Amino acid sequence: MFPSSSSSSPIVYSLTLFLSLLFLFLFSPRIIPHGNRHRERLISVQDELDDLRLFREAVSTATARGGSSKISHLGTINPKPKIAFLFLTNSDLVFAPLWQRFFESSNDDLFNVYVHADPATKIATPEWLIKANFIPAKATARASPTLISAARRLMANAIIDDPFNMYFALVSQHCIPLHSFKFVYTSLLGNPSSAHKAFLTQGSLKSYIEILSEAPFLHNRYVARGDGSLLPEIPFDKFRVGSQFFVLAKRHALLVLRERKLWRKFKVPCLDLDSCYPEEHYFPTFLSIADPKGSSHYTLTIVNWTDSVDGHPHTYHSPEISPDLIHMLRKSNTSSSYSYFFARKFSPDCLKPLMEIADDVIFRD
User: Fold this and answer.
1) Whole-model pTM?
2) What is the side-by-side strand order in the sheet with 111-117?
3) Rg for the chain (alpha carbons), in Å?
C-alpha cells in the first residue's frame, strides 16, 4: 500500500529543500555576484537612451564644426590642439595636487580636464584642480560594461565642450604623471608653436591603446558571456584584450561614439565573472577591427602586475616612492621610442613623497 499524501508531504518538502540548497551551492557563484569584484551592474534602458542622445550630439557637433579635418571657420588664427584628460573615478582625486602641478608646467591653454565621478560615492570637488569639469555621471561597477559607457561619456562631453581637443587621455584616480606636461604634449602633438599643423594631419594621428591577440586565459575572456555569445560579429581570431586606460586620437574617439554593433555584444551580462572585464576587451577589439594600423597597440600607462591580488595590480605605497622608481616606471618595454607617460596604481599615502620629488624628478624630463 502506498503512503498517504499527508504522510509523504514532509518527505517531499525536505527533498525539495535539499535539492534547492544543493542547486544554489553549486551554481550561485555563476548567478550571484560576490563582493565588489563581481558586482555586475546592468545598464538601464534610460541610461542607454541618455547615452545615445549624448553620443549623437557629440558626433553632430564635431560634424557641424567641420568634421574631422576642417577648422578654418572656427575663427581662430593658428589654433593649437589640446589634450583632454579624462578622469574616471569612484573616490576622491587624492593626487589632484600633483596633477595640478603637472598642468601648471604648461604656460599655454593646451589642455582640458573632465571628471566622471560615480554618483554613488561622495567625492569632494577639488577646487584647486584647475579646469576640472565634472560631467553628468552614471553609476559604475568594476568589471562591467558601465565602465565602457563612462569612458564614452567622457569623450562625448569633451568633444562637445571644446573643438580643439585632439587627444583624449583616460586615467583613474590612482594614476600619476611621470613627465612634465610639455613632454607629454610635445610627444603627441609636436612643439606647441607649430602644433596647429596637427589639425591638417589629424587623420594620421595615432592612438595609444594596448591591443593584444595573445594573453593568459584569452579564450575564457572570449566566452565569458557564453559560447558563441560574440558571434558572428567577433570571431575568436578577432577578439583582443588590453589595458583599460588609453590615449585616443579624436578620429578614433568619434568612431567609438558612432559604434553600435559591438556594443550590443559587450553590454550583455557575463556568466563567468572571473573572466569578465568588458572595459579591457571592447576598446581593443573594436579599434583593432576598425583601424588596426591606426593604433600603437601599446599603452602609455604602465601598471605593475607582478604581484596582482584579486585582479588588482601592485599598489605602490609611500616607502616605495623614490627618484629611482620614477625613472624605472618611465622606461618603455616596447620597441617604441616613447617613454611611459603615466603610472598606476598608487595609494593615497604616496601623495606627500611624490610632491616632494615633483619638481626635481617627475617634471624634470
Assistant:
1) 0.86
2) 132-134, 111-117, 82-89, 165-172, 247-249, 207-210, 295-297
3) 23
